[in-house]
What does this fold into?
Amino acid sequence: MLLADFGLTGPIILSLSKHAAPLLKEKKQLKVSIDLKPAIDHEKLDERLKREIDKGGKKYFKNLLKNLLPAKLIPVFIEKLGIPEDKKLNQINSEERKKLKILLKDFQFEVSGYKSFNQAIITSGGVDLREVNPKTMESRIVSGLYFAGEVLDLDADTGGFNLQATFSTGYLAGKNVN
It folds into this structure.
């Protein structure tokens, strides 16, 4: 997953968009929850935050966040937590530390939309596979008409699977055209 200027992207988001886009069209509310520290459990994260806060002393809260987050997320965290960026670490209380820990493990926000069709990387829909002979890719309805690739109602997870399906169906169609 990547954080971009327009929102979230990357393979996991592309895979999830197949399920999210129809729900958004139905005006359903969707939230994304991101664990920004997946390699560490809540208890160990709390211990780490205590150490960092104790060690930081008179440094500012934003300095702690620099060790925990990408730079572009720091203002977002400061706003969500309501902790001033210039608050000294030795003034951070246990409730504020707990809020930070929870936000790091469960960073949530509402999904507001998706990119337009013209910007789509993955599309869904097309010719029904039941209408195509899978051995030749010829239409079962119109003799001599062959289909391949993304014109078919065929989509897969990201990671080259759609490309492989396109190459394979293109090969079969090309091999069987009279």
Q: What stands out?
A: Strands lie at 2-4, 7-9, 31-34, 107-110. The chain has two domains: 31-110, 123-176. The CA atoms of residues 123 and 155 lie 8 Å apart.
